Amino acid sequence: MKNIILDTDLGGDCDDASAIALANKFHNKKEINVLAMTYSNNNQSGALLTSVINKYYKNDFPVGVLKNNRLVIEYGVDFVEKALTILHVEKDFSALQNANDLIYDKLVKATDKSVTIICIGQLRNIATFLDSNFNGVSGTDIFNQKVKELYVMGGYFNQKSEYHSFCGYTMSGEYNIITDLNSAHIIMEKVETEIIFCDFDVGLDVLTFEKFSTDYNEKYPVSVCYKLYQNGARHSWDPLTVLYAVKGDNEYFDSKKGNVVITDKGRTIFHADSQGKHKIVLLKKPKNEVAKYLESFFSEELEEK
Fold this sequence. Notes:
- With 305 residues, the chain is α/β, with parallel strands linked by helices.
- It contains 14 helices and 14 strands.
- The two termini are 33 Å apart.
């Protein structure tokens, strides 16, 4: 059973909500053991909403928020605040821990190579940990000793030129990478364990969970998130990253070994190599079939009225 730390930026998109829910569901089925969740920027309301989703599934995982190394991303803040209001959540942040200390606590207690970390937002928490010192021991040494694998929802390996366009924006790389490029470079430099990239193209046009909007349930936090943010089906970048981290290669997923390079502007380039230290995730089925596969894990929620 994998021991999981899930690092999220819920608020930048609504698909974090279904990814968090999916981790809870796998934990409740004893397919994984969720140790903690962390939030990759300074939006305490987003971290609180993460905790709200956990509690909906009757879990009270410790949640950590970035406190000592600021990353302020305003995108999605209004959406998170509205969700908390609809869900009648008191804004009590006292239970939120320092993400860096929380990661240390969980890793230092773990046996070697026993923890899987899944990052579905910016990489600031992991970079902060790598650059930290704990009683004379570097975070990098602890990370590489304790972490078996790091899954990253990030990159865009089919980017054909220096820039690409999405939803009217011109970007030099994938969003999670370019919004905290320094952290991405730190990870590529210091992480020795295997990094598995589930990139932009994997979740793009895998449109899921439209029913959370059409059959809106204001008591279900994930439904609230999809209704507020998308009011319809959404691309599935984050839940597919969690799903692959748990299920691995199967009839829906494949992977390829190689080495990933992140350029100075944030473009991600993959070089296939059977001896490489990275992997990229690939889809084996058409995207509409992958969407049905993902939604199959939410059959109870999608049937609720």
